[in-house]
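Quick log. Single chain, no ligands specified.
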Amino acid sequence: MIDREGRVEVANSRCADVLNRPPGDLQGQPVSNLFAPNSRSDFSVLLKGMSKGTAMPEVEVMVLDPFGRQFPVMLDVREIRNSDDFLVRLRDLREIKALEQEYRGVFKSIAEAVFIGDPETGQILQANRRADEDHQVSTSQIVR
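-> predicted structure:
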């Protein structure tokens, strides 16, 4: 939970697990200090929008671990009713990103032509390298 100035008021153990920092170390800190420099403006925009009463979407940002290494999280900021505070939720995306990379590697290495399409529209969303070769067109021409 953060105040309207963006300072951490309360951090639960899950937040501490994601950030690899004890909850007590987070209290009173500007939450923006936890973000990688290139993500601080994203947080600032979210906080300003929320302060004006605008519902803001989740956004993927980079945060810093205690050693300064960056990693991706999904950031969600929500206003707490009857309070001047905001609820901040961070979802660690490292595992999801690793699975995406693994999926891409498998998808690219399949020996058969593979297309992934939207069942409602019939639109081809992805095609592997073999599909390019078999149809003598590039993936960018297949995927629209």
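The mean pLDDT is 87.
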